Amino acid sequence: MILNVENTSRSFSGFLALDNVNLQVAEGEMHALIGPNGAGKTTLFNVISGLISADTGTVSFKDRELSRMKPHQIVEVGIARSFQRVNVFPRNTAFENVQVAFIARNREHFKIFAAAYGKYTQEIMELLILVGMADDASTPAGELAHGKQKQLELAVALAANPALLLLDEPTAGMSIAETMSSIELIRDIVKGRNLTLLFTEHDMTVVFEIADRVSVLHHGQIIATGDGETVRNDPEVRRVYLGTEESES
Amino acid sequence: MRPRGGVQWTLFGLFLVALVPVVGERYYVDLTTQILIYALFALSLNILVGYCGNLSFGHAAFFAIGGYACVILTTTYEVTLIISLGLSVLISAVAAAAIGYVCVRLAAMHFAMLTLAFSMLVWSIAIKWTPVTGGDDGFVGATLPDLISNPVSFFYFALLIFSTGLILLRVICTSTFGRAMIAIRENETRATFMGMDVRKIRLQAFTIAGAFAGLAGALLGLYNRGMYPESAFWTESGQVLIMVLLGGMHSFIGPVLGAAALYILETMINQYTEYWQIVLGVILLGVVLIAPDGLAGLLSGFRKRKDDSVTGVDSE
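Structure tokens for the assembled complex are given below, as produced in the milestone run.
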């Protein structure tokens, strides 16, 4: 198991957002985390990536304990994340957005005499081409269409050279066509680069299409884990989530 | 993000400034020297405010520390000028690192208030530590080497130091570290999740800003042949902040324009009225409302934007 979340709980002023969560993600798999709004998906992402700390339990990645690490240290050990709401540098170009990520990855953000201009041009363009944004390199990120911004986020996350990619709602706000092409892109990249993917997704078609395994989070608890078929037919999951077809945005 | 034709313009500007003693009277030489000193001070503050996005209300602390250190070293301890200058910068940097270590733990307004508190601490030390600093009366009668003891030679000395500082700061701002500062200013969370230790980067910015403020302060001490507690007072921090805002914090060269504009306006307006502060208030109001990017923003508005620069701060 590349990622191992054990007995993790977290509450916010009395509200139990994560209730004794256990989640194992195997190396190389595409693991979907689904559940209704407010089930704790983003909280779990925030705990894994170090944005918030858990009250109890442990999170380990490649047998390294993450709980005491700072977010930037967690990135260094190989976990990169995207955000549900687009989180880029809006006034900087797409090129510059990815460039900063490369600077950070190569630990050059303290170097005061290393000229930034033109740095990593080739690597940056390769990544932008990979996510289908070659023509948008010099467009300010804030002026890109929503779908493109999501792809830029993906490029930024990939620039950190992660082993585990955490994508929070990678297709949120996309049209059906965009969602399909975007999800294929993610699959190709994850498989092509031998990455492990943990993602949240509201579109069940997407989830059952690409996920190797699915975990269902409900009221802060994992109520089911397994391959798509198992989870889809799980009576408890049908009762609390799939059956009612709650729409998430 | 491409460094544009700024280099030629800057060299041209420095060349024009170098002509001041040739064409101007002593009065203008003095005025320009003061502008150069404050322009360097304002440039150093803009590392924090414009690049890193950290508003400091106490930057005068390092200006004063550098100034006191330099005059005390050259006069009390008779250290040679160059070594004194170097040590002043070093002492300011160490002080900034120590104070910054505490300040960068806080965000936004709390950061600003803590820098203010530390600068007032420096001010009270300057006043109370009479045997070393001269206390209330200031440290007077600093000695200068003969080479720079007349106004014109001191002017060229100040211009040399200013140009060196300008170039170094330009290199720093266009470095990978400069890019990291901008990233933090734009979106601290995203920068963190790219793997940056935001706190350390802010501390490094704070230290560099303090070091260059110290260099400017050292120049002031030499220029005035002494140092006074007012240089650490909050009004001094406020004035340099005004220079940055007036000139434009989203431009590298903006603070230089701001320092020049403030000095020239003050001189001009003082001839007509003693209520300079009121006029300044009106001007600042105008800048904030009409030209939030300051004089540099107005200037670059006149020139057609040539490339894809949107990082603001890198547009010269």
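The first strand of chain A starts at residue 3 and ends at 12. Chain A touches chain B through 40 residues (CB under 8 Å). Further analysis is deferred to the final report.
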